[in-house]
Design a protein that fits this description.
Blueprint (H helix, E strand, L loop, with lengths): L6 E5 L14 H12 L3 E3 L5 E6 L4 H10 L10 H4 L1 E3 L14 H17 L9 E4 L13 E7 L2 E6 L10 E8 L3 H15 L6 H8 L1 H12 L10
Parallel strand pairs: 4-5, 5-6
Antiparallel strand pairs: 1-3, 2-3, 6-7, 7-8
Length: 231
């Protein structure tokens, strides 16, 4: 409810890109809904859209139209998806060292499965992805962040807080993209086993110490990956 008898509806837009993808026709679906119902729009600072001034009797039709185009609403996305930010990086930014926006959706899909496997998918976790150390997606404050160091390789930061009031610690300097999910799985298994009720991941790391997490990762991966050493 927006306070005047009408309603608003938040529509998540990955990286603010109003485009049609294979499974989600954001551009086509939004155009159809807006042309049909003639509502006002608000563009949010976190790259999403709010459809405003919706009448009570329009709600069901609007949600149906959006979902018919594969557009996800709040109940359709995970907390990880909702709280992930990525900078534009390649091919837009000349400073980029590695991909960010273009790996966001496939990486989140992999990490969602990891969280589900360790029964922590209901936990709130802020993931930040940056293509270079300039950190336009604010990676140095997230629960978990990856920062591009060279093509296909990322520095890993953990231990910031969800509110963005504590800096994170760099624990590994160059993780290959293909092994990010393996490292994340080690981290989530440890988190699931030792967290307190309601404890966010960054707060958990702050409590147990990032050095403990590094030691777990190195012990689990051993000599098979030379990059598995603390930064």
């Amino acid at each position: 409810e927006q306070g005047d008898g009408k309603w608003f509806l938040g529509v998540p837009v990955s990286s603010g890109r109003i485009i049609d993808r294979a499974d989600e026709k954001v551009r086509t679906g939004l155009r159809e809904v807006i042309q049909t119902h003639q509502m006002d729009l608000v563009l949010t600072s976190d790259q999403n859209i709010i459809l405003c001034d919706i009448e009570e009797d329009q709600k069901e039709a609007i949600e149906t139209q959006l979902k018919d185009h594969g557009i996800k609403l709040l109940e359709d996305i995970s907390k990880l998806y909702r709280n992930t930010l990525a900078c534009v990086s390649l091919p837009t930014c000349g400073k980029a060292l590695a991909e960010a926006e273009r790996i966001k959706l496939p990486l989140v899909a992999q990490l969602e499965k990891v969280m589900e496997a360790h029964n922590v998918s209901q936990e709130t976790l802020a993931l930040r992805i940056a293509g270079c150390p300039n950190g336009c997606s604010r990676p140095y404050m997230g629960d978990v962040s990856i920062v591009g160091r060279m093509p296909g390789h990322y520095a890993l930061f953990i231990g910031g807080d969800f509110e963005g009031t504590r800096l994170s610690d760099k624990i590994i300097d160059r993780v290959p993209y293909d092994h990010l999910k393996d490292v994340f799985s080690i981290m989530m298994e440890h988190y699931a086993s030792h967290k307190n009720d309601g404890e966010k991941y960054g707060d958990f790391v702050h409590r147990v110490g990032s050095k403990t997490v590094v030691e777990l990762i190195v012990a689990a991966l051993g000599d098979q990956h030379k990059w598995a050493v603390a930064a």
